[in-house]
């Protein structure tokens, strides 16, 4: 049997039993004995005991001084399984955001680390607040001193918001389609734009590509918007997050797209 098949069999063995996963979850963080596992998991003694035996027989755990410990490789398997479960939970929680939307611009690295967005909030417009998503983004841009963004379309308020960041000695780096370059730059004060471009506080990358993703990275938060499968931007929902992991995730996406589209 190949190593690849052995790994597949090990992961299947662990994933097929909720009880085994619960036991591993307990032991992953702290070695314990049978009675401690029964108490912490609320699983009956016979089920805990029999599954411990199976885990031990398959070399996933070992008993040391009356306590069970997870073996190093099984720790890796468990973490992979938990990351996968978290990814599925995130996708299901925001099904309306991901489903029937174009995800082509999300790199494999971003998809692999999608759980970095687990603390996100889905912001959706309502019949009585049709500008909710824009107003959330606008509020972010009004408070930030630095901005990295991918704007696939032009909102009339963006040029002034960008100018305000620059006036406040902030930094702006944006990727935009060439088709909206003049519409944005013509509405920013010429002196401010020239000065900030010279000092590299303003970087604008006009590109030919159809960007197909919306992204803002501010001082304390990020927001992500997607295009529908029919090619139209979904203005009715954005994903917003304030965690450090989400900021790192968003910066990675920004840099990846920048490398892809800037020739």
Walk me through this protein's architecture.
- This protein is α+β, with helices and mostly antiparallel strands and 263 residues long.
- 50% of the residues lie in helices and 19% in strands.
- It is built from 12 helices and 10 strands.
- Strands 3, 4, 5, 6, 7, 8, 9 and 10 form an 8-stranded mixed β-sheet that branches. A two-stranded antiparallel ribbon has the order 1-2.
- A hairpin with an 8-residue loop joins β9 and β10.
- α3 packs across α4.
- The longest helix has 22 residues.
- It starts with a helix and ends with a helix.
Order of helices and strands: HHHHEEHHEHEHEHEHHEEEEH
Strand content: 15-25%
Count every beta strand, where a strand is a DSSP E run of 2 or more residues: 10
**SS content category:** alpha+beta
Count of DSSP helices?
12
Low-confidence stretches: none
What level of helicity do the residues show? 40-55%
- Overall 3D shape: elongated
Mean pLDDT: 88
Q: Termini separation (Å)?
A: 46 Å
Gyration radius, in Å: 24 Å
Largest sheet: 8 strands, mixed
What are the SSEs and their pairings?
Blueprint: H1 3-15, H2 18-29, H3 34-41, H4 45-57, E1 61-64, E2 67-70, H5 72-93, H6 95-98, E3 101-102, H7 108-112, E4 121-124, H8 132-143, E5 146-150, H9 158-167, E6 171-177, H10 181-185, H11 190-198, E7 202-207, E8 213-217, E9 222-228, E10 237-241, H12 244-261
Parallel strand pairs: 5-6, 6-7
Antiparallel strand pairs: 1-2, 3-9, 4-10, 5-8, 8-9, 9-10
């Amino acid at each position: 049997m190949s190593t690849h098949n052995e790994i597949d069999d090990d992961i299947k063995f662990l994933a097929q039993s909720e009880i085994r996963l619960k036991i591993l979850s307990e032991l992953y963080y702290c070695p314990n004995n049978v009675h401690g596992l029964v108490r912490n998991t609320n699983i009956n003694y016979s089920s805990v005991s029999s599954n411990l035996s199976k885990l031990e027989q398959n070399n996933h755990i070992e008993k040391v001084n009356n306590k069970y410990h997870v073996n190093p490789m099984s720790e890796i398997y468990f973490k992979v399984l938990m990351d996968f479960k978290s990814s599925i939970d995130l996708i299901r929680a925001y099904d309306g955001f991901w489903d029937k939307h174009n995800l082509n611009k999300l790199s494999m690295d971003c998809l692999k680390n999608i759980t970095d967005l687990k603390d996100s909030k889905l912001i959706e417009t309502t019949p009585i607040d049709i500008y909710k998503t824009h107003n959330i983004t606008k509020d972010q841009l009004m408070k930030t001193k630095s901005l990295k963004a991918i704007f696939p379309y032009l909102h009339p308020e963006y040029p002034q918001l960008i100018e305000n960041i620059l006036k406040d000695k902030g930094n702006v780096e944006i990727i935009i389609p060439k088709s909206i370059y003049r519409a944005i730059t013509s509405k920013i004060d010429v002196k401010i734009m020239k000065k900030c471009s010279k000092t590299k506080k303003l970087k604008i990358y006009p590109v030919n590509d159809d960007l197909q993703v919306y992204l803002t990275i501010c001082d304390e938060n990020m927001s992500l918007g997607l295009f529908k499968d029919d090619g139209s931007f979904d203005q009715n929902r954005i994903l917003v997050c304030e965690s450090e992991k989400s900021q790192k995730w968003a910066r990675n996406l920004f840099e990846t797209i920048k490398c892809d589209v800037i020739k």
